[in-house]
Structures are given as structure tokens and as C-alpha cells.
Amino acid sequence: MPGTSTASSSIQHHISFYKFVGIAQPEHYANVLRELTANVLGSILVASEGINGMVAGTATAVDEFAAQLMSDARLGGSFSDLVFKRSACATPPFHRMKVHTKPEILPLGVDDVHIDVEAVSGALTHVSPQAWRQLITEDDVVLIDNRNSFEYRLGHFRNAVDPQVNNFRDFPRYIAEQLPNWKAQGKRVAMYCTGGIRCEKTAAWMLGMDMPVYQLEGGILNYFASMPDADKDWQGECFVFDNRVALDTRLQETGTLDEEVYADSPDEQWRLQRARRLAEET
């Protein structure tokens, strides 16, 4: 029966995905997705600029959902080439399924600027995990962590710079402030985030700024999945926005608690309260 398979096994599979693609009827897509997610739990956001989601369930349920997402005719082939990041998990990542629509799947926070990521995607530079390892050792590269400071504190690439922002919307201001210095120093920018979506939108916004920008293909999670010795480059853990809280470089849950993530930052107490609410929902 729909909705029962996710609780039938202690081992679940988590997948995350996103794509910047024009969607003329986001609410129609959302309604279709509410049908397709009957046997999984998680969160999916649909907007006119694309889709961003993460779901979990049994291996069978996740496989079936992914196949339907790519092939359902009602979605017009918009997601036929989606790339999924997958990991097994003992802790159920989610307690409910939510599909919703918003004006953007990822607000950059730059007033009066429309960023069409799909239109400029061919001009963006994605770096494979294997090439990334070499890139971030080069002297003319400034390595930027495109995440919140609490995520950086939990774990980051060695020698990465923490922009010290508490929200993705604050990131462009940091870039704008630092850009003249980087140009004067002849630097190139390499940046990374958890799954790639934050870097994708930032890199699209930075086009035309006369600054070479490189983004880690598939983000941290893809690096962990692709590089068996990722711990050579990564220090600490990787925060994830679900009940598992944090993963190590083998994509295994670490046992870190929300209280430990936010303990050193009074400004993050609202995140802690939200995490507690989500953990209590059934």
C-alpha cells in the first residue's frame, strides 16, 4: 500500500537532485509529483526555474520514484536527464512528504536581477572530483565554501575560505566585496557546496564579472561518492539538511547531533529549534 514501504525496513536510501529548467506550470508539476511520491518521504520544491528535491524510502521505492520522475509524460521530459546523488541510511531522513511551489528553487538575494541558469549553463565550468583535487592545490586559486558558516565549522575542504554568512542570500555581498582583491591578485575562484545547486546559481550570476569560476561537479556528496580517499582533502563532516544531520567521507552517518552543530552559534538557535520540530513530526 502507498506510504507503508518507507517504514518496513531499517535501511533506507536517500536521493537528492536538482535541475534548472524552465517550467511553465509549476503547480501542475507539483500535483503530478504528489502522486509520484506516494511511497517515499522528503521534500521537493518546484518553481518556474526548475526543481530541487530530496526523498528517501526503501531501495525499491526510491528506484521507482526516480524512474517515474524521469519518464512520466505529464512532466514533458523536463527531468529525463536528472542526476541523482544516493546514499544508504539507517536513520530515516524524513517523517513526511512535502511537495510545494515557490517563485524560485533557490533565491540568490540579488535585487532586481533575474538569473536564467538554464540559458547560461553551457558557459559554466564544472570540475570533476578527480580534477578538483589538483585544482584546489594551485597557488592562483582561492577556494570558497559556498555554504553557511555552521556547515563550514562542521567540515570543509582543507584551506577553504569561510565567507562567514548565515544565509545563502548573503553570499553575493561577500563575493562583491572580495572580487576586486581577487582580480588584483590574479586569482581564479573555485567554489563548492553540498550538492551543487548553490554553486550553480552563484556561478551563473558571476558570468561577465571577468573572473574565472570553477564549481565542483555534483558538490561535496559527489566528491565523497567518487573519491574513496576523500578524507585526504576533506576535514571533518558534511552537514545534511535531514534527520541524519552529518555524513563522513564514506557517506555514513556520524552520530553528530543538531545540538552539537549549532552549539557555538547563538544566531543559529532558530535552526536548532526547527530541526527539533522536524524530528518530532510523524
CATH topology of the largest domain: Oxidized Rhodanese, domain 1
Mean pLDDT: 90
Strand order of the largest sheet: 4-1-3-2-5
CATH homologous superfamily caption of the largest domain: Rhodanese-like domain
Instruction: Find the count of extended strands (DSSP E, 2+ residues).
Output: 13
**Portion in beta strands:** 15-25%
Distance between the termini: 18 Å
- What's the CATH architecture of the largest domain? 3-Layer(aba) Sandwich
Lay out the secondary structure:
Elements: E1 12-20, H1 26-36, E2 41-47, E3 50-57, H2 59-71, E4 85-89, E5 97-101, H3 117-120, E6 126-127, H4 129-135, E7 141-145, H5 149-154, E8 155-157, H6 171-184, E9 188-192, H7 197-206, E10 213-216, H8 219-226, E11 234-236, E12 238-239, E13 246-247, H9 258-262, H10 269-280
Parallel strand pairs: 2-5, 6-10, 7-9, 9-10
Antiparallel strand pairs: 1-3, 1-4, 2-3, 8-11, 12-13
Provide a descriptive summary of the structure in words.
- The protein is α/β, with parallel strands linked by helices and 282 residues long.
- The protein has two domains: 5-101, Alpha-Beta Plaits (2-Layer Sandwich); 117-280, 3-Layer(aba) Sandwich (Oxidized Rhodanese, domain 1), CATH 3.40.250.
- Helices cover 32% and strands 21% of the residues.
- The protein has a five-stranded mixed sheet with strand order 4-1-3-2-5. The chain has a four-stranded parallel sheet with strand order 6-10-9-7. A two-stranded antiparallel sheet has the order 8-11.
- β9 (188-192), α7 and β10 form a beta-alpha-beta unit.
